[in-house]
Amino acid sequence: MFLDWLGSRFRKKGRDIFYALGFTYQVFKETALFVKRRQVAFRVLIMQIFFTGFEAITIVSLLALALGTIIIIQGYSSLTNLLGQKFFYLMLIRLITVELGPVLTAFIIIARSGTAIATEIGHMVVSHEIEAYISVGINPISYLVVPRFLGVSISLIILTLYFSFFGLFASFASTQFFVTIPFTEYFQGLLSVLSLQAIISSLLKSVIFGFIISIVASYHGFKVSHAPTEIPKVAINAVVHSFALCIVADLVLVLLFSPILSV
Amino acid sequence: MRFAMKHADKIVGLFVLVAILGLVGVIIFLGANQHWFTRNIPFYTVFRSAKGLVRGMPVTFKGFEIGRVRSFELDENNSVVVEFYIYDTYYPKVTAQSIIELASNPLGSSIIFYPGKEHTEPLKEHSLIPAIDSSVGKDIVRLKLAAIPAESEDQISAIMKNVDDITSQLDALVKNNANELDTIIKSLSRSTFALAQAMEGKGSGPISQTLVGLSGIVKNLNTLTTDMNGLIPKLLDPTGQEVYPAIKKILDNIQTLSEQLRQFSEFLNGTQPQIAGILAQIPDILNKGRDVMEGIANNPLLSGGITKEREQPSTFKSFRDEAF
Amino acid sequence: MNMTTAIEARKIVSYSGDYKVLKEISLLVPERQFTVIVGPTGCGKSTLIKILAGILIPDSGELFVDGQDYHRLPEKRLLEIKKKNGFVFQDSALWQNKSIFENLSLPLRFHFPELSTSAISAKICESLEHINLMDSINLRPAQLSTGEQKMVSFMRALITEPTLLFLDEPTMLVDLAMRRRIVGILVREKRRETTVVTVTHDAEILNSLADYFILLRDGFLVREGPAEEIKTSADESVREILSDSISVVEALPSPSPPPPPVE
Fold first, then answer.
1. Residue A20 lies in a domain
2. Region of poorest pLDDT, from B132-136, C52-56, C59-63
3. pTM, rounded to two decimals
């Protein structure tokens, strides 16, 4: 009895994962065709970047400014006394640019856009709007998912960049409470420890988080079958799964990148 | 919001553009900072040992980074072939008879480049720059064909660097504890001054008093001993055979001692600053000594064997008290 | 009567979860005829018409459109077919996040990228004037009444001038005036010899417009054939389905039957 239940659960999970992988494959395939087609979906992409990226800039910059300040206030004396100037800059780059920037930005985007995408697509399924797209001949993946996929990924890269800029600027500003250093010296200090690998790792993380968030959110949105009551459930699932996958992906990337990053 | 929606295209364009320009700017600065855009001219050299060699290690000339180590490997003759490159801007320095040195010291290694003295055309890419300890390198050094500073620049620079680090640390320390240090140094200088005075007999401190006392005692003893048949010697030694030589010996010793003391005080006068340093260390040493004593005292085999001394106030302290 | 086949379905099986909605249905849809799918509610009519239109993919069975295996067609060929298709949904299924103008312009821009913006605008204005909704051109679908949405949905299907029109309950949820206008449109389409496939309970459509009948019950095909043949059939089950499924609309607006459990 229990074994049956367990077996059927595993079969169902397996089928879900298989379906999700197929979905992901479709998204990537349609994305590859997106540029070639120059479709009507370009406008959707712009709007997606507008909603996901531009409208989140306030909260992202607020978070970055606060975090940059907090790191300095909590850690300035111990960072500089124990480890010296070089490690002070190294810690800033590691914390703000490489680690917290992509992760916190991803969390903001999950909360803002992950839920929005899942509920919007879920609602479209319920009101047969998806079928309407198919009836016209428009592939919902290429028209609905690909712009969201690209939009969220691009937005996340851009927002991560802004997060780094704002976070490092806030660090500079709050360092002035402790010692007065000219901006050029601070900038030079950052440049001396910044490596291309750090930048690439930061951007790669944000791209992958963008992939995860958009695919997970739209996948769950499409999982709605009939009832509007399913929509809140898929929104929750989209958020939880995005969180989990982003953190796991971050861990994997950190493990992959740590040998390269070590100075 | 309606406005923003209407101009979504422009806003999104600006939003993306600013970020990308920022990124490109940072990358350009980074590249300039890390010599990405300069052409790197490869050379190689042969070292006896790879000890201290690290990939990406900078090649320096007069303290400037002029290139980096690309790779190194052991060849069939068991010598270490090191591939390195020199940045484009420093390429003209790489003239004939240039040599290269791998200087290792406990603080870390560095590769130092010495250009040939003659101003020739720069060496071709991939050519050998001999190591300073190779036979060619030794010849170059002996014939003074390369511009090597009189002293081995490295050791000095290494020490200087070391000193630099220490002073910077000291600086930080001083900054944090400036007031206390200041008072300590001031009191130290006063103390040493007082000590010097005491040694010269000008002061009124314990040492000068002791010296005065000592001379009194010597006088008394003298009078005592001249009267060999007096009461006291008889009291002490009825035969007169044992005490007199002993006392004589003591007196001789005292005389040499006082002579030494005089010399010492003169020396002290000349070396006031050093004493300050030694004095500063005294409490530590005393503490360590006390620890040792404590260890001995606690040792069951020895316990009771050594009389416990009462802790004495340090001279340092008493002098300071007096000086104030 | 010319009886070339527009669509041929072979052994179509469709599931909704574990429930078998369509049970091995094979049928023909004649070209340039007005075909009606009739059956009691919940018998799988909506699923069938969506499968015939290529919106839903059957779990097994084959679909031939213009003699070609529809689900194995290359994408380009598929789009050519879609370009000539129009589908009107039971619940309109307008794209809620687009204005009425955008709802109508998307199929045009998608299938006729060569059309200029002004040509598209002209076409949209013409069709909106036809249904007296010119004032609503910049409104969102949610700002329109259900009946008006249905009319826009009709216009969205017709704006690409399809030769194959699918209608799922075209006269449902509309008032009598609008119903009359819709019937007028259908009469026009019939005159143009557009191939029409419709699910309906509307007596007027069944009596005066239908050329070909497809009778369904409980997921089985009961009978298919030309209107005269079906109407005069002595078969008990045919008579039963016809009498049960036709709603009386002369006196009252067509009552909205509860939607079938599967969509």
1. no
2. B132-136
3. 0.68
Report the C-alpha gap between C49 and C64 in whole angstroms. Answer: 14
Domain limits at A146?
A: 42-261
Selected residue with higher pLDDT from A87 and A164: A164
Does residue A6 sit within a domain?
no
Q: Does residue A11 lie within any of the structural domains?
A: no
Residue A244 maps to a domain:
yes
For chain B, give the percent of residues with pLDDT over 70: 64
Q: Number of folded domains in chain A?
A: 1
For β-strands B80-87 and B64-74, DSSP reports them as: antiparallel
The CA distance from A191 to the nearest CA of chain B, in Å, is: 6
C107 touches chain A (CB under 8 A): yes
- CA dist C109 to C31, C94, C119, Å? 27, 16, 11
As a whole number, the mean pLDDT across chain B is 74
Q: Is C254 left (phi over 0), alpha (psi -120 to 50) or beta?
A: beta
Spatial contact of C51 and C123, defined as CB atoms under 8 Å apart = no
pLDDT per position as a tens digit, C35-56: 999 988 888 899 999 999 999 9
Give the pLDDT band (50/70/90) at residue A207. Answer: very high
CA distance A229 to chain B (A): 30
Q: Which residues of A25-122 form beta strands (DSSP E)?
A: none
Per CB-CB distance under 8 Å, the chain A contacts of B5 are 50
Of residues B155 and B255, the one with the higher pLDDT is B255
- Kind and range of the H or E run holding C223: strand C220-226
- The size of the A-B interface in CB pairs under 8 A is 50
The residue among A46, A47, A50 with the most chain B CBs within 10 A of its CB, best to mutate, is A50
B16 Cβ under 8 Å from any chain A Cβ: yes
Residues of chain B neighbouring A161 (CB-CB closer than 8 A):
19-20, 22-23
Best of A60, A158, A262 to substitute, by most chain B Cβ atoms within 10 angstroms, is A158
Q: Give the C-alpha distances (Å, rounded to integers) separating B222 from B217, B252, B281.
A: 8, 12, 41
